[in-house]
Amino acid sequence: MFLSMKIENLLFVLVVGLFATNLSALDTTKYAGSKSCEKCHQKIYKEWKKTLHSQMIKDVKANPNAIVGDFESKSDVRTFGTEGILYTIGNQWKQRYITKKDDELYILPAQYNLETGKWKPYHAKDWDKRPWLKKCGQCHVTGLDYEKRTFIEPGVGCEACHGAGKAHTLTKKTGDFSKNIVNPTNLSVGLQVQICGSCHTRGKDPSGQHGYPLNFKPGDSLTNKYNTISKTNKGKFWPNGHSKGHHQQYLDWETSAHAKEGVTCISCHTVHDTGSATRYQTRLPGNKLCLNCHTLSKEPTNTHSIHDFGSCIGCHMPKIVKSAESGDLHDHTFKVTPPSDTIKYGGLKKQQNSCNSCHYHKDHKPESLQKVLDDLKKNKLSLRDEK
Question: In this structure, are residues 91 and 115 in contact, taking their beta carbons and an 8 Å threshold?
Answer without folding.
Answer: no
